[in-house]
Write a structure and sequence with these properties.
single chain, 470 residues, alpha/beta, 3 domains, 4-stranded parallel beta sheet, two-stranded parallel ribbon, 9% strand, globular
Length: 470
């Protein structure tokens, strides 16, 4: 029987909440009572913040918060729902023959089953050509795409941006931002961008009850989950040991020694033992042709429907900038706030949590700085158009032409050799005169080596012959 944790999970969509529930259950625990397979579901807030959510948070004992780069959440949700949504309602072009009433469910048999979503019609997908990047870029319509100052053009561009905001909010897992989950906001004005109340001084309730776990590539998310469970146990099960207790033991000299046992240490040993039990259990084989509803576990099944875009395609630089500026700006400002980081990163894994958030900030630093300084996304895009993947920054020491994917040296009079590496087009320049001189020196070196080897061989023959006759 699972041990009930006196805690509630704030399960932000596509931020690893499913993995948190799965890991917690495997270690023999559950949030608030009941296992994920029983009628009594784990205690969590998922989908949308509950009404009067801040007041509810303050009344709860402990809260586990899942965090992830907002752009990564957006991309994950877009392509996830694109796989599962039926296209046989009003879309005859693709001829989706999957059954929305399939008994196996869309996760169990994604090739045969799908889910009807009346909000995501063919008009929605066609408006953005089935591309998450095009939807993201549409947020810049009112400022970056205008070519004239006419009132009609401005109204058209503003309407495109408003439509993009409405359409993004049809993707329910990422409709609400980190900021929406942690601060008061007006739900009736969610479509508006001027709906923020980010006062870090109003977050005192986070100090003793909010524990963050962060999904970020290269950082151990499972270890953070284990650390979260330890933190809950140290505050609840072992609360009476928060101050050190004394235990007497006999050492080798038969004298009495003293051990200070802290609540954190006892909780840590509980998790170590739970891990050992888990390792001894037979691991179930993953089902074929199934999808895992997880943000950090790669799906073994690759759906190849004609309307699907590749889920590994990065959001374009322009799309990333537009979303950061017009939808997730407050989230990124929050993630860079040291006060907030110190509030959510706690316990044994606090440094792992901090480094994960710092990694997110590092990847988005240049765009965030550009936006904060009042820059337009279209300007940033033109300056960085050779960077196709917004998660990779290339520092080139040579002059670059940012309007193409081919880097060229401005000084072409002396002649250069260009080494083009992959689609990112990194150039190494080698002056031709230097290359010619190097070739001559290398040839002389080879000649000297050959002459030297002949002399050594001749000496060896003479020496060997003399040895034979003596």
């Amino acid at each position: 029987m699972a041990i009930e944790l006196q805690s509630t999970l704030i399960h932000l969509g596509k931020a690893g909440g499913g993995t948190v529930l799965d890991r917690t259950e495997k270690l023999g625990y559950t949030f608030g009572g009941g296992s994920s397979n029983s009628k009594r579901q784990p205690k969590q807030y998922h989908g949308s913040p509950p009404p009067n959510h801040i007041s509810k948070y303050k009344r709860l004992q402990n809260l586990i918060l899942t965090l992830r780069d907002p752009i990564d959440r957006y991309k994950s949700n877009y392509y996830w729902i694109q796989q599962l949504t039926c296209r046989n309602n009003d879309d005859v072009e693709y001829n989706d023959t999957r059954d929305p009433n399939c008994k196996y469910g869309m996760y169990g048999r994604p090739f045969e089953c799908c889910k009807v979503n009346t909000a995501l019609t063919t008009k929605f997908w066609n408006r953005y050509n089935n591309s998450a990047s095009i939807l993201a870029e549409s947020f810049c319509s009112s400022s970056s795409s205008a070519t004239t100052d006419s009132d009609i053009n401005i109204q058209i561009q503003m309407q495109k941006q408003k439509q993009a905001r409405i359409d993004l909010q049809k993707l329910k897992h990422i409709k609400f931002s980190i900021h929406n989950w942690l601060f008061e906001f007006d739900r009736k004005k969610l479509v508006s961008n001027n709906n923020i109340n980010n006062n870090i001084n109003n977050t005192d309730w986070m100090d003793e009850k909010l524990f963050g776990v962060v999904v970020e590539k290269g950082y151990d998310f499972i270890e953070q989950i284990d650390g979260a469970i330890e933190w809950i146990l140290s505050k609840t099960k072992y609360k009476k040991y928060t101050s050190s207790s004394t235990t007497s033991i006999n050492n080798t000299n038969n004298s009495t020694g003293t051990i200070n046992i802290m609540a954190e240490e006892m909780a840590y040993h509980d998790i170590v033992n739970a891990k050992k039990r888990l390792e001894q259990q037979p691991q179930p084989q993953p089902q074929q042709h199934s999808l895992q509803h997880s943000s950090i576990i790669s799906n073994s099944t690759l759906l190849l429907f004609p309307w699907l875009s590749r889920s590994d395609e990065p959001i374009t630089v322009l799309g990333t900038c537009c979303l950061m500026k017009y939808y997730y700006y407050e989230d990124y400002k929050l993630l860079t706030d040291p006060i907030f980081i110190n509030k959510v990163c706690k316990g044994r894994t606090k440094e792992l949590c901090r480094h994960s958030i710092q990694s997110i900030n590092h990847r988005r630093k240049q765009i965030l700085q550009h936006i904060t300084n009042g820059g337009l996304c279209i300007d940033y895009y033109h300056k960085n158009s050779e960077i196709e993947n917004s998660e990779i920054e290339i520092d080139a020491s040579t002059d670059t032409n940012t309007n193409t994917n081919t880097l060229s040296n401005n000084n072409n009079n002396n002649g250069t050799m260009k080494l083009l590496l992959s689609s990112k087009t990194v150039m190494t320049t080698v002056p031709l005169p230097s290359l010619f001189l190097s070739s001559i020196l290398f040839g002389l070196f080879l000649i000297l080596v050959i002459i030297g080897r002949k002399k050594i061989f001749k000496c060896y023959i003479i020496h060997d012959t003399r040895s034979y006759f003596t």
